[in-house]
Amino acid sequence: MAKHILIVDDSKTVRNLVAFIMKKEGFKVTVAEDGLDGLEKLYAAGKVDLIISDINMPRMVGYTFIKTVREQEAHRDIPIVVLSTEGQEKDIQAGLNLGADMYMVKPAQPEKMLRNVKMLLG
Amino acid sequence: MDPEIYADFVIEAREHLDTIEPTLLELEQTPDNLSLLDEIFRPMHSLKGASGFLGLNRMNRLAHKGESVLDELRKGKMRVTSEIMDLILKTTDMLKEMIESLEEHGHGEGNIEALIVALEDLLYGAPVRLRF
Question: For every residue of A51-78, which 3-state class applies, written as one string?
Fold first, then answer.
């Protein structure tokens, strides 16, 4: 069965492009427009295999979203990739400390994104 | 790449640009309201991000300069003047033109050099040389 990826970003352009890249690889994709929507879509799906999340989003920022996901037994081990414009050391550390497995700074190269996703999916 | 991605980008970009002008007008009335600057910074930042993601480098470059100036303004490092607001407005207008060019011709063309120079002048503390 195809692996299911959840993409959380408030930019439709980013959601579209990342979804396009992932779908082309054969992954199933669900998109969400902020952290709150991300949680709703995650619960609706029951389970996903990987999450790609932005940080700066309205209603619920990426940090809160990741923290909330990690607090749940069922989702503790889902690989999470942060995809954010904030690329300073403190931002990367914050993301990783909250439980992200990887931090990518925008704009990220599609090939690199794909390689990282495939690596995390094992 | 799926052409629909560009079509959606055009819509998103216009949404961002459409919020900037009315907020600039509001700022003219209340130039000390720094939170309005946040409301101009955010769409410019999002536009920079989205255009960069799609490899629309000229648009990204111009939006980036605009964002840098707005960042200085919202942090209180630069004072809001009518010349600066006019420059931000011109930047927004140019970005709108580039979006239209993208929609009509498939590439976001625009003569951005004069604007880039003027924005850089601001960032490096020189008086604004508006040569239009």
Answer: EEECCCCCCCCHHHHHHHHHCCHHHCCC
ipTM: 0.82
Q: Is the peptide bond before A107 cis (omega within 30 degrees of 0)?
A: yes
- The 8 Å CB, 24+ separation contacts for B73-78 are B73/B34, B73/B37, B74/B34, B74/B37, B74/B38, B74/B41, B76/B34, B78/B122
**d(C-alpha A19, C-alpha A16), whole Å:** 5
Contact residues, chain A, for B9 at CB < 8 Å: 12-13, 16
Task: Indicate the helix (H) or strand (E) that contains B102.
Answer: helix B82-105
Q: What is the pLDDT of residues B38-87, one digit of tens each?
A: 999 999 999 999 999 999 999 999 999 999 999 999 988 888 888 899 99
Determine the pLDDT at residue B2.
80
Interface test with A, best of B38, B53, B59 (most A CBs within 10 A): B53
Residue A112 to residue B93: CA distance in whole angstroms: 34
Contact residues, chain B, for A13 at CB < 8 Å:
5, 8-9, 12, 50, 53-54
Task: State pTM to two decimals.
Answer: 0.88
